[in-house]
Amino acid sequence: MKKEPNQNRIIILSVVAVFVYIFMVANSFSSGWDAFKMGYRSAYEEWGHTPQIAETPGRFYFLSMKAREGYIQFPDKIYNNRTESFYPARSSCLVVALPKGTEIPTEAKYFDWLMSFLIIISLFLYIITPVIFILLIHSLYTGNVFDKDSTSYTRYLGIILLLVYGCIQGVSYASYRMHQSLFSFEEYRHVFSFRENYLLMMGVAVLLTSEILRRGLIIKEEQDLTV
């Protein structure tokens, strides 16, 4: 069976979209790979599989920070080997190792549980997304553009993207509040920032596309009734 030009375009764009999705997921996991390895190491030692070392931290925290006095403040110093001198510096990210046996506040535990819950939901949504996408591409490939299935799959995809975005912001906020309850620094303050904002744009764009398809379906049905 010879493929129509429009079908070929759908196949090409689908392959590109799959690679983009794989890249996005891989990039998200790679950015948190160090945190995963550190957490795994701490848990492994805590279970007694390796000899306990007195200086080994119990848990690692990745903090987003800003100097309290703003961009004009450089609280730290860093040594430059080329000039053999110290330069003023400041950090935007800190990795803090909490010693074993440190008492964790109840508030921090609650936010830690909330983070775990939202991460599980995000993983579930990441699994569902390619399934919905494949169903949508199959519907488009068969020529059903202005169809209830295509409209529904597009709407579901947009909603899922917005839910993933919401979960990511929830994890970021819970992490921010947990760090606030654990650490307070004289020259730095904690920062909450919105992450992965492209998902918000994509979700709204997909929902807009869904609405266009729905409107096209209504017009098509009206035309069929007229004929």
Which terms summarize this structure?
single chain; 227 residues; three-stranded antiparallel sheet; alpha+beta; 5 helices
What does this structure look like?
- The structure is a single chain.
- This protein is an alpha+beta fold and 227 residues long.
- It is built from five helices and five strands, in the order H-H-E-E-E-E-H-H-E-H.
- It has helices at residues 5-31, 33-46, 106-141, 148-182, 198-226; strands spanning 57-67, 76-80, 85-89, 93-99, 188-190.
- The strands form two sheets. A three-stranded antiparallel beta sheet has the order 4-1-5.
- The protein starts with a helix and ends with a helix.
- Mean pLDDT is 77; it is low at 49-55.
> Residue ranges: pLDDT <50 for 5 or more in a row?
49-55
Q: Biggest sheet, in brief?
A: 3 strands, antiparallel
Strand content: 5-15%
The first-to-last residue Cα distance is 31 Å
Task: Please bin the fraction of helical residues.
Answer: 55-70%
Number of separate helices:
5
Helices and strands, in N-to-C order?
HHEEEEHHEH
Multimerization status? single chain
Q: What spatial form do the alpha-carbon principal axes imply?
A: elongated
Strand arrangement, major sheet: 4-1-5
Overall pLDDT level = 77
| Structural class by SSE content | alpha+beta
Radius of gyration, rounded?
25 Å
Topology, number of strands: 5
